[in-house]
Design goal:
Elements (H helix, E strand, L loop, with lengths): L8 E8 L4 E4 L12 H7 L4 E2 L3 E2 L6 E11 L2 E11 H4 L4
Antiparallel strand pairs: 1-2, 1-6, 3-5, 4-5, 5-6
Amino acid sequence: LRKERSALICEAFVNDAAGYKVGFLAKTTEWNHKGLPKHEDPMLGKTWTGPIALDESSGARQIQVAVPIWSDGKPVGSLVVGLNVFQLSADE
């Protein structure tokens, strides 16, 4: 995950099936997302997109997108990526 860090990607983490962090770019505010849509939707095989919000961990205004991690046709975890909203429209 650390290789993918950029101005656009302000946070990224992988949760196991129980919602616990098993990989992350940097320390996060919460260590478990069980029961939250950002984990539960991907565990149902769906993509989840959150609202624009100030992230306590990174200090950036971001939007989070979460997707399932698949194994043998079943979701076994979730990948959550926080995208810096100011970088989404920035010219490169």
